[in-house]
Amino acid sequence: MYDSTINFTLDTICPWTYIAKKRLEAALAQVRADNPPVTFSVHYNPYQLFSDAPEHGEDKYEWYKKNKYNDSDDQMKRYTTYMSAMGVGNGIDFKFGGTIASTLNAHRVMQHFQEEKGAEVADKIVNSLYRQYFEEEKHPSNEATLLAATQEAGIPDAEAEPVINDQDEGLQDVKMMIREQTSNGVDAVPYITVEGKRRDFTLEGAKEVTEYVKTLNQVIKESN
User: Which are the contacts of 206, defined by CB distance < 8 A and separation ≥ 6?
Assistant: First the structure.
């Protein structure tokens, strides 16, 4: 049995990483159904799309319109229409209100519990952060959002609250991880590397489910 780690570099305010995660989950479900001689586990690496975003944030819709779409209502409408359709096709109910803000604290908490509790708990935290931000219009990284995410992951409040409230806990480690991603050539997310026995496979951007399946099956084929 070969153990393959899927290194998934993401930012929890990037819609394309949310789409990629949904598609990768679908691919893993397909591949695992055949009981392959390879176990796949996902490890999340932090990245910040907007490293200068303020902690308390700005109105998400207005920020996108101004910074991404030339302050154009028409361009913004095309974007929301397109992303809504993309979401429906991937089981995501994208909404466009709420707040855009720094995700540093979200990464910090997620990395802490990924290391302490493992991949399954980390996955539940990431799922919650995505859903809260994109589908429920919640702040991406304030205390309420992070506590809800850790609760959904089954972490007792007595364990989660000290980590959430101490914003220096693991902060420098996460900043170093983000710098490492940049030094490794990551300049956009999603950025996924699937470890193989003979070679690794890198997938940049949100690929289709079929492409993830193809890559996973290639790792299985080369594990013999």
Answer: 16, 17, 19, 20, 23, 190
For residue 193, list its beta bridge partners.
7, 202
Q: How far is CA 18 from CA 8, 39, 62, in A?
A: 11, 23, 21
Would you give the distance in Å from CA 74 to the centre of its chain?
29
Angle between helices 73-88 and 15-32 (to 10 degrees): 10
Distance CA 40, CA 153 (A): 20
Q: Smallest Cα–Cα separation from 153: which of 177, 132, 175?
A: 132
pTM: 0.96
Cis amide bond preceding 140, omega within 30: no
Please, are residues 191 and 6 in contact by the beta-carbon 8 Å criterion? no
Cα separation, 141 vs 13, whole angstroms: 10
Rg (CA), the chain: 18
Give the containing element (helix H, strand E) for 6. strand 2-10
Residue 33: which residues within 8 A CB-CB, separation 6 or more?
none
Tell me the residue length of the chain: 224
Distance (Å, rounded) from C-alpha 174 to C-alpha 209? 30
Element (H, E) at 44: strand 38-46
- Rounded-to-10 torsion of CA 85, 89, 95, 96: -50
Helix (H) or strand (E) holding 61: helix 60-68
Query: How does pLDDT run across 113-160, given as a tens digit for each residue?
Result: 999 999 999 999 999 999 999 999 999 999 999 999 999 999 999 999
